[in-house]
Structures are given as structure tokens and as C-alpha cells.
Specification:
Layout lengths: L4 H36 L1 H9 L3 H9 L2 H27 L3 H17 L6 H4 L2
Helix pairs in contact: 1-4, 1-5, 2-3
Length: about 120
Amino acid sequence: MTTDPSFTQQVERLHRLTIYGRWLFVGCLWLTVAPASLWGLRAEISLWQQYFTWVAVRYGLFYNPLSTFGLAFCIGMTAAVLVWQSRNILLGLPQQEKQRLEKQVSRIRQQGPTHPLWKWICH
């Protein structure tokens, strides 16, 4: 969009804020959903400690779908953020993502100090 160095720096800040936000979300999942899911599987985990077989794991997860979904969601979101961030590190930001960030920074600049992200992006 523009070659203004402060604009480019603000786009980078917004991208960094997006990264922090995604990892914060994943961290909150692991601090809330994962313990609740593991608590739901406590009887099965006790059994697995005594007689571990993959069949016991399979049936334990199959008959506790809510706990299984919670753990799968935590693992899936962690993997998704890892893949997303790895792609951005190795291949750079896709053009579409750059344009989205640039539009968002333009909207933040246009709205000014009343925008919630103003102090984080345009300080």
C-alpha cells in the first residue's frame, strides 16, 4: 500500500500482536479446557497407569466424548498456531495476509485514539 516506514512498523506491530493473541488463546485453552478434560478422564487415566494398552486408551476416549473433544481442541489449536507461525517464519507472510494487516492498520489510524488497539499499534 505505502512505503511509509512508520506504517510498515505498525503493520509489523499488529502482526506481532496477532501472534501474541493466538498464543494467549492457546495458553488459556491449556489452562482451562485441558484440565477439565483430563479431570473427566481421571478414572481412565488411573486405569491406564495400571494396565496401559492402546485399546484401553481408545475406549477411554471413545466413551468420554466431551473430554476427548476438549483435549483434541487444545491439541488442534496448538498445532494450527504452530503451523501458521512456522509458515510465516519460513515462507514469509502471504500477500493476502499483508493486505489484511495493512487495511486494519489503516482503519486503526483513521479511527485514531478511540480505537482499542491504537496505543499498541500507533503509539
